[in-house]
Design brief:
The chain is an alpha/beta fold and 401 residues long. The protein contains 16 helices and 13 strands. Bound molecules: pyridoxal-5'-phosphate and (2S)-2-hydroxy-3-(4-hydroxyphenyl)propanoic acid (TYF). Keywords: Aminotransferase, Mitochondrion, Pyridoxal phosphate, Transferase.
Length: 401
């Protein structure tokens, strides 16, 4: 029956983990997948999450199905976290929102909703480069994937002129995907002034902005600061789509906690949109899982735990920043590694786009047991005081060839 099914390639990101697991060398380092690790290289369960879990368990919750759009308290608090309590869309109750299977599921519901109901275009513009999964995800949702320039290889920075030119050249009312903060894979975000300019172009061209916010809190250490772009667009009168993930900022990766929302014109429109979100979700997976949403809600709903959580997010962000400093200093100053490494310090969020070439990443895996994606992206959280020297020396050797 399946003799015509061809073998597919491994996932470019998750395939790295498989190669890492198969390597038996004790010095091996996995900088592939973007998952936070503590200073001992171990997965990190946030203390606030542990407390939240105790609160959930002590209430002896049942295992009934959630509504199609998830735990209502959780989605309400998730919207507050993203849009802010001061936002008009929150005050006026015009945010249509559903719980989702983490950020990926939120993007997929959004893709399906736009493919079915956005009347103006099927084209979605993604930054080049972008998170690899965006491309098949939106294609499989029934949208037509296109690109806008984002990364400038020469400056190892934002190609702001290219970005503006490409958005201006896009057909009116196209959909544009924007990484809300901590762009994956480049670690390069627009400045607030640049965001304001992007917002103006989006308005002028009547583009539809779809924000992917997978790292709220991870870029700056502050969830409010990291929501700047989303809140600015909303304050400028844009209607937006938003995918939220709690995988990284609460460390709830495998619990699959997220939300998808659309801002709407008025409460009646919101109610119609809500009804269509349910119609999309019901035949996909019926209703979302319980446990993670309860944990996230227990944090978002409790002032003390919320404060504790924010400081733990900042702790993760700060540890990554200290690894950036250390890696930069070791490569640039101590080892004098050929090239300019300042971008490692200036990039933000989970990743650094090192500029290492595909052959260099291959050599690093084969000779040094150091694993990263072929585009030279490293997950900064995989570095720690025990392995960073070895990593820097391995990079130095790979660059010198
Ligand atoms: N969007 C971006 C840009 C990401 O980097 C990720 C995860 O790495 C996601 C979305 C979704 O992740 P998850 O489905 O685990 O929330
Ligand atoms: O490292 C990255 O960019 C992501 C991480 O279900 C990831 O691809 C891994 C598994 C998953 C979603 C995201």
């Amino acid at each position: 029956t399946w003799s015509n099914v061809p073998a597919g390639p491994p996932d470019p990101i998750l395939g790295v983990t498989e190669a890492f697991k198969a390597d038996k060398d004790p010095r091996k380092i996995n900088l592939g997948v973007g998952a936070y690790r503590d200073e001992n290289g171990k997965p990190y369960i946030l203390p606030s999450v542990k407390k939240a879990e105790e609160i959930v368990q002590s209430s002896k919750p049942d295992k009934e199905y959630l509504p199609i759009t998830g735990l209502p308290e959780f989605t309400k608090n998730s919207a507050l976290l993203a849009y802010g309590a001061e936002s008009d869309v929150i005050k006026q109750g015009t945010v249509a929102i559903t719980q989702s299977i983490s950020g990926t599921g939120a993007l997929r519901i959004g893709g399906a909703f736009l493919a079915r109901h956005y009347p103006h275009s099927k084209a979605i513009y993604l930054p080049a480069p972008t998170w690899g999964n965006h491309i098949p995800l939106f294609g499989d949702s029934g949208l037509e994937v296109r690109k806008y320039r984002y990364f400038n290889k020469e400056t190892v920075g934002l190609d702001f002129e290219g970005l503006k030119a490409d958005l201006k050249a896009a057909p009116e009312q196209s959909i544009v995907l924007l990484h809300a903060c901590a762009h994956n894979p480049t670690g390069i975000d627009p400045t607030p002034e640049q965001w304001a300019e992007i917002s103006d172009i989006v308005k002028e061209k009547k583009l539809f902005p779809f924000f992917d916010m997978a790292y709220q809190g991870f870029a700056s250490g502050s969830t409010a600061k990291d929501a700047f772009a989303v809140r600015h667009f909303v304050s400028q009168g844009h209607q937006i789509a938003l995918a939220q993930s709690f995988a990284k900022n609460m460390g709830l990766y495998g619990e699959r906690v997220g939300a998808f929302s659309l801002t709407t014109a008025d409460p009646a429109e919101k109610a119609r949109v809500d009804s269509q979100l349910k119609i999309i979700i019901r035949p996909m997976y019926s209703n979302p899982p319980l446990h993670g949403a309860r944990i996230a809600n227990a944090i978002l709903n409790n002032a003390d735990l919320y404060t504790q959580w924010e400081s733990e997010v900042k702790g993760m962000a700060d540890r990554i920043i200290s690894m950036r400093e250390k890696l930069y200093t070791t490569l640039q100053k101590d080892l004098n590694t050929p090239g300019e490494w300042g971008h490692i310090k200036s990039q933000i969020g989970m990743f650094s786009f090192t500029g290492l070439t595909s052959p260099q990443t291959k050599a690093l895996a084969e000779k040094a047991h150091v694993y990263m994606t072929a585009d030279g992206r490293i997950s900064m959280a995989g570095l720690n005081g025990n392995n960073i020297e070895y990593f820097a020396q391995s990079v130095d050797a790979a660059v010198r060839g």
